[in-house]
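## tool: complex_structure
## caller: assistant
## args:
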Amino acid sequence: MTAPAHARTSADLIRAEEPVLAHNYHPLPVVVARAEGAWVEDVEGRRYLDMLAGYSALNFGHRHPALIQAAHDQLDRLTLTSRAFHNDRLAEFAERLAALTGLDMVLPMNTGAEAVESGIKVARKWAYDVKGVPEGQATIVVAADNFHGRTTTIVSFSTDESARAGFGPFTPGFRIVPYNDLAALEEAVDETTAAVLIEPIQGEAGVIIPDAGYLTGVRELTRREGCLFIADEIQSGLGRTGRTLAVEHESVVPDVLLLGKALGGGIVPVSAVVARREVMGVLGPGEHGSTFGGNPLAAAVGTAVIELLETGEFQRRADELGLVLREGLQALEGHGVTGFRARGLWAGVDVDPALGTGREISERLMREGILVKDTHGSTIRLAPPLTVTADEVRSALGTLEKVLGQAG
Ligand SMILES: *Cc1c(COP(=O)(O)O)cnc(C)c1O
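## result:
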């Protein structure tokens, strides 16, 4: 009844999804069939520069040769054991991830949301076992406009109504304060507080960069108040901002670090909670787990990702190309761009609403061979693979200029 995939056009495939695929996304009308580096190709063979990079899951580009090689090698040896047994790839992955992040112990999971959930569980258990918070009383302080994932507990402390409406009842135990506001944080933290959980840069909110000193302030406040600092670096981490971790811009080390997205090299879902020994040490056998977490394929790919980051090349590229990106965006300010925030190879760009919504701008860019995604309103996010070239970044900005010139 259905034609083989290779015989179906993009339009056919988009139409075919409608009755059978949950409508929880509103993708741009492009059907990607293959990709390499910073470029993807659709079913009809049209090429696009990928300026989204899978929300930073593709920091090393599509199908980076070293990562593909690591995956192939591992596929030929061993793919899954479950944690009922040891596998021969997990020790190295954990050792190197701990060393890379300056922390001690790794809890391997799969998706970002699972890492956040796991970090919350670890923090609560730490609050009861170590801090002495009365059972059932632990609180976690989070920031408004956060994005930490989509599970029922995580949407419980979202301030985005479309993420929450219809999904209650919600998990209690969270306090929400404005982002980038140390006084509000101080006010919210008390003797029940297990942790402060924030993104060092708020990605989905539009690449919101806190004031210099905020992360240092969070670190000092949490230490002084005797609660944990959990940094969700699932999107900001692993090279994106020009450092291995965004917290490094203020030389801050959190107690608990959440990683995901790029940790899987764009190949498999790999996430992790990385923490100080005194914190992760609260978990005992049977108290947490995941069938797929720490599987040998994930560990092999994750180790290859860490190896790439150990060279420093990608962090350096993000730094250098970030300069090109910022200069280009500065030139567009007042010419359709009303403002932007950028760190490393990552920018939130506010487009003059008179020229179109973020969605409309994204669609026009798509027709010109550039893939981006709006966040909300008239903000688009630029986050190309860190393998992109300076010329490709300039060319993408040239296309943005052209699209903004046409609009309205
Ligand atoms: C994407 C993201 C998550 C959730 O990751 P999933 O793999 O989609 O579950 C959590 N936190 C941040 C900061 C993210 O950007």
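## assistant note: Residues 65-310 form a domain with the Aspartate Aminotransferase; domain 2 fold (CATH 3.40.640.10). The chain has 14 helices and 15 strands. Handing back to user.
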